[in-house]
UniProtKB/TrEMBL annotation:
This is Heterokaryon incompatibility protein 6, OR allele. InterPro entries: HET, HetReg/Transcr_Mod. Residues 3-92 form the Heterokaryon incompatibility domain.
Length: 95
């Protein structure tokens, strides 16, 4: 499985927006929405990584399941080290 990982600052957990993930509507922080909008234009993106699926904790981990979250968090070193690239997002320049 080829994927890219996105590491980001969550930002204010109260300020959220809805996005669609595999046909499911989920609430994520506005900082994640900004990161997802910027990611396709990231300079480290290469031709080989443009079609890879993204791995983002808020989108790939069931945030309401403590057991799943604990298991996935313990795997994050492996997840990031096995990704095609890791994009890091600290926030928009205007934040």
């Amino acid at each position: 499985l080829s994927f890219n990982a996105l590491s980001y600052v969550w930002g204010d957990p109260i300020v959220t927006e809805a996005i669609l993930v595999n046909g499911n509507r989920i609430q994520v922080t506005t900082n994640l929405v900004s990161a997802l909008r910027y990611a396709p234009y990231h300079p480290s993106r290469s031709k080989n990584t443009t079609t890879m699926k993204p791995w983002v904790d808020a989108m790939c981990i069931n945030q309401t399941d403590s057991t799943e979250k604990g298991h996935q968090v313990s795997m994050m070193t492996d997840i990031y080290s096995q990704s095609g690239i890791v994009l890091r997002w600290l926030g928009s320049p205007i934040d």
